[in-house]
Records
---
Amino acid sequence: MMHLYNSLSKQKEEFIPLDPNHIKFYSCGPTVYNKIHIGNARAFIAADLLSKVLKGLYPKVTYVSNITDIDDKIIEASKRENLSIKDLTKKYFDIYMEDIGLIGINPPDIQPFATNFIKEMIAYIEKLIRLEKAYEVNGNVLFRVSVFKNYGCLSGRIIEEQKHGKRVEVESYKENENDFILWKPSNEKEPGWNSPWGFGRPGWHLECSVMSEITLDIPFDIHGGGNDLKFPHHENEIAQTCACNGLDNATDFAKYWFHNGFLNLEDEKMSKSLGNVIYIKDLLNEYQGNHVRLALLSTQYRQPIPWSKKLLDQAKSISKKINSFLEKYEYVESKFVKNTKIADALLDDLNTPKAIRIMQDLVQSATFDPNEVATYKYIFEGSNQDVSIDDITVQEIEKLIAERNAARNAGDYALADKIRAKLSKMNVSIKDVGGKTEWKI
Ligand SMILES: [Zn+2]
């Protein structure tokens, strides 16, 4: 039996599926306007971890994670990079997929793009207006929060004008400060679609309500995302979905609410050399994807991760020790085996640090247990180990490095980065030292 912390009830609960023959899980995905940083990666690795454990336990699991490809940040980035919205979102979607692959995250089973659901979002808004749960003002459509009495049930938060002892200035078109945008007008330079309220685009919160309901049907088992999404994003999703379907409780939408903790950059040295935002590829000069994966999983998903060079170095050294032990057992297939100590640790609210410690103890005492090894591999080795070291010849690596250097000399840094990512996928890390490129496996 799995136990999972439910952010809605604020306690660890036994996970009882709505239908044990088909588990349904939705987690908020990226807005594709920039490379994902290590803090974003934490949310994706937590969702991936949960989906892997569920897939180890149940015969059928559908894990959905959306792609936000229309948003104000995307519009700004497309101006900045002088790319069309379509080209910009395609570019960053591809980078996202490559980056998550480098740290062993499997793609979700269904990855709906917001712009493919505009028609459905318009129909959803029309229904909310018909039910008098939304209203239009000058091309804006707003959700009327006062109609949903459980607003604030997840986060405990609600914006109240009087709350902080001062009046919050309410945008003139809002009936109430808590009301949020379902549809907003676009000018002729901005992307938009024709709607009953004029040319415009949907609000961000709406897409998750619409796409989760279409892809999974409601209620579904688990809704996830980063802690920062509890308010207002998930609170607004709950209000929309419940209001549109005549439901009272968040559990009528999703039974369990799963949120991961933050990642704190605690290392001044690291933020000095890499900047305050650390991208996955920045780490791959010094570390392999599976070191970064282990570092991310070395803290239980709900706790804040104190991210530092020390943490990465520790993960690298642990990973090396475990991997050299596992080399002897390459024939053991990666598989989630129930009733192992590692599986039990994971079933207890995904206690990855405990699972790692169990594996370290086995290594320490040189104890080979095929079931523990299979389960460890299944969770911690990730999925993209498609090129094994045995298949790589030195010539191939050196050819790729030469190609990368040629690309760098020609100023084609995008290609150079791509080649570096390819090498990293082959478990080869490279370092540029004094005009030369050193590499190691
Ligand atoms: Zn969402």
---
Amino acid sequence: MLTVQGLGLQYGKRILFDEVELQFTRGNCYGVIGANGAGKTTFLKILSGEIPAMRGSVSLEPGNRMAVLKQDHFEFEQEEVLNTVMMGHRELYDIMLEKNAIYMDPDATDTDGMRAAELENKYGEMGGWITRAMPPSC
Ligand SMILES: Nc1ncnc2c1ncn2[C@@H]1O[C@H](COP(=O)(O)OP(=O)(O)O)[C@@H](O)[C@H]1O
Ligand SMILES: [Mg+2]
């Protein structure tokens, strides 16, 4: 579902990786292992689209979406696991926060109510409920 073809990147003369061919398939968990400075973070940044590759391509199968959490475990220390996972998809998480804030507000107006309904629709369309209910695949 995520395909890496002919991926290559170098900084100056230092080639971090080249001609990487990989297929990440559904239901599997993958770990990237390597010495400090080997290029793990850079590779993940290319996968997530944060930085472009110099050569090759990364393609996500249509109908799938990428969610990414930053490499900073302190940032999520105060959060429930489920919220942390959902934060990986920022847009969905923001919709959830906004609609929940309306539901919690005793002074919410009719307009707020309509906004909540709109957000609820969007949340459903984006698979919000499925995301919450889905057991982790690993
Ligand atoms: N923007 C950059 N410009 C130049 N060199 C970089 C840049 N980002 C990372 N590097 C270098 O690329 C190498 C790989 O870095 P990184 O992907 O962070 O490694 P890892 O996560 O495996 O420890 C390191 O030598 C690092 O100094
Ligand atoms: Mg790193």
